[in-house]
Fold this sequence. Notes:
The protein is α/β, with parallel strands linked by helices. 42% of the residues lie in helices and 14% in strands. It contains 13 helices and 8 strands. The strands form 2 sheets. A 4-stranded parallel sheet has the order 2-1-3-4, sandwiched between helices. α6 (79-89) packs parallel to α8 (109-122) and α9 packs across α13 (234-245). The longest helix has 14 residues, at 109-122. The radius of gyration is 19 Å and the shape is globular. The protein starts with a helix and ends in a 21-residue tail after the last helix. This is Arylmalonate decarboxylase.
Amino acid sequence: MPAELSVGLVDPEIAHGSGSGDDESSDDAPGVGVVAPFDFALDRELWRWAPDDVSLYLTRLPFFTTPVTVEMAVAVGDRRAVRRATRDVLTPRPGVVAFACTSGSFVSGVTGEFVLRRTMLEAGAPEATTTSGALVDALHLLGVQNLAIATPYIAAVTDRLVGYLADSGVATVASEGLGLLGNIWRVGYEQVVSIVKAVDRPEADALFISCTNLPTYDIIEPLEQALGKPVLTANQVTMWSSLRAIGRQAVGGGRLLEIPLHRSVA
Length: 266
């Protein structure tokens, strides 16, 4: 067979783990498959949460020209596209597949988030998680009942997040959005810190910074020290949950990462 036609073909025995010892050793540190929106621009931020011996395998959902609205969030969570992307990312045999989009996983409520996870599992993912599902797990483990949220979204999208959290047993005591319809990754740390401090309330047990396209890695610990409470972010909970699924701890700051791996979600 010509070389160019054989690229990507895998021997069935190797694919099922019955090859050489080298293939068996690759299972010692399973990777994380990531299904991301087409406009995701923060690959490096996800890598920063990963231990050195854990690889990330990213694939993107199809491109379409729509501003960041409720309609776009619904389109990003399209089951057919998620199923196809999950299958695409299974080639390197990740131990878990994560849907790395906050709005796309909360926009259709608790049922919509469940359907996304089930879609990835039915497509062959050994384990599956979503950003919004990971957020709820993290909040429950931290005992958070009242939350303040900072988002880059317009009000209609932020409202969907508030509703999703309410249906998950978490009350939103305050919310603030930047009203952006695109280019969210260009928001700098200074603006993120400003909106988080503005939305904090004494009655909030914790704060959440939404959107995987918003940079947050370096500001989590400083914000927790300044505010005296946990600060969770979209990429943080996504990687925390994904790595937890394969028995690994995320690398970085924040009270969330202090939770022992053996503690289960109630």
